[in-house]
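Sequence and structure are no longer studied apart. As an example, we show below a sequence and the tokens encoding its fold:
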Amino acid sequence: MKNLLGVVLCGGQSSRMGSDKGLLLLNGIPWASHVAARLKELPVPVVVSVNPGQISNYSNHFAPQELVVDAATVAVEGPLKGLLSVHRQYPTHDLLLMACDMIDMETATLRQLLQVREQEPEYNFYVYQEGEFAEPFGAVYGATGLAAVMQKLQAGSLPRNSLRSVLDNGDTKRLPLRHKQSFRNYNRM
């Protein structure tokens, strides 16, 4: 997939889980590695977004070039910080964003999203949506749309510092959510 980069977002605090979710094991393999393997099935290159305090632990599972550390110059917090930090390092790539706890994501669900992206390239963002709720993960964030978000952030005119706000205020293609099991997330043991 030309100019598409898979991103496994691991930089959260995992406060509800009590430990780093990306490093929890499933069949002896960290969750982040499971999600990265799913993205590589598409096939797309993959990076893992981490905060500075996670570098040493994630270096045990990923090569240095696969890790993108949250940039101190990206003046937001939460998942948007990870997304924009990756965009800052890969400004010409569209980003297929996955959370590290999306271990139930089905490849077919992602393929369908990418197929719509190919067929309707005029949008900046591609997401699944159920009712009023857009899924900010398992979504594609286009380079052009992210550049506009970065400009708004630098100008101090970003309405809210959240992925949902980015989607709500951008040119977003919304697909009906039919594969709910793909979007299970795990916040507690």
